[in-house]
Specification:
With 144 residues, the protein is of the alpha+beta class. 18% of the residues lie in helices and 47% in strands. A hairpin with a 3-residue loop joins strand 6 (74-82) and strand 7.
């Protein structure tokens, strides 16, 4: 293999493209750090265009994820996907906080977050964005 590749180079996504891909993704992954360990959790989410700007919201239950977010609020959130022609990855960084005010909870309940897992998810978390970016590229043709 000589390394030649006729595909266009990897392209940075615009912020608008990133938010559209996040909104269209059925789930994302949240990476949290606590006590020197990093954990990654899949979450069903929605984009919240609240009064403080765009953010990610998801539902959870008491447990490891919520505890780690309480200890260390800086998180990363990622969605990715592909088709036969293209692949992409979007990473959002921000600060997570559990929603406490009834007015906030009522507003985000209308966004339609439906967790896949059967356990009760009665806590709401909002990731307030500090950075969002992503990349996309054309996939190599499949071998016959």
């Amino acid at each position: 293999m000589n390394g030649a590749d006729d595909r266009p180079p990897t392209r940075e996504l615009t912020e608008e493209e990133c938010w559209r891909l996040i909104a269209d993704a059925p789930f994302g992954r949240i990476a949290v750090s606590a006590a020197g360990e990093v954990d990654i959790f899949p979450v069903n989410h929605r984009v919240d265009e609240g009064p403080d700007g765009k953010a990610i919201v998801f539902r959870t239950s008491p447990g490891t994820k919520l505890l780690e977010l309480t200890i260390h609020a800086n998180v990363a959130f990622e969605v990715d996907g592909y088709s036969d022609e293209e692949a992409y990855s979007v990473v959002l960084k921000g600060r997570a906080r559990e929603l406490q005010r009834e007015s906030e909870i009522q507003r985000v309940e209308g966004l339609g977050v439906t967790p896949w897992a059967p356990e009760a998810k009665d806590r709401w978390v909002r990731i307030e964005t500090t950075a969002v970016g992503g990349r996309t590229f054309k996939r190599a043709p499949s071998a016959p």
